[in-house]
Amino acid sequence: MNLDNNFVEKLKELIESSYKETLNFDKNIENKELNDIVTNVDIYIEEKIINQLLEWFPKYSIYSEEKGRINNNSEYVWYIEPVDGTINFASGIPLFSTSIALKKNGETIFGFVYDYNQKDTYYAYKGGGKILL
Fold it and tell me: CATH: 3.30.540.10, 1.10.10.10, 3.30.390.50, 3.40.190.10. Which one for 5-132?
């Protein structure tokens, strides 16, 4: 899988379909550290993203908010924030997103944000500018 517009479309579809699958979930809000919370939706979406990224890029490492680190000793590391704005989400405030980044040797080379409220996708490649989809 290449990091291109096709990849971004597949990532967007994955996130949208994962979120739709959670619409009837009980949020099951749990406290974390420092006034932070986690919901079943955070965990479910994160798991779906991790599983798909490992299928597409099996040798890359992953660092995610809920699960932590999957270390494959790779120069590439995915960073995943499954529900950025969980407090808003849990409170019914429609201001939350999913954020994903890819670093190579510590340098960010790809960034992706899906805004659930606006249904907009923002992404950028190193040297490629930013794009709204």
Answer: 3.30.540.10
Please identify which residue in the block is written with the tokens 């660092």: 63
Q: Cα separation of 3 and 124, whole Å?
A: 10
pLDDT tens per residue across span 12-53? 999 999 999 999 988 888 888 777 889 999 999 999 999 999
Q: pTM for the full model?
A: 0.91
Asked if 105 and 95 touch (Cβ cutoff 8 Å), the reply is no
Dig out the tokens for 41 from the structure: 């939706």
List the structure tokens of 103. Answer: 């670093």
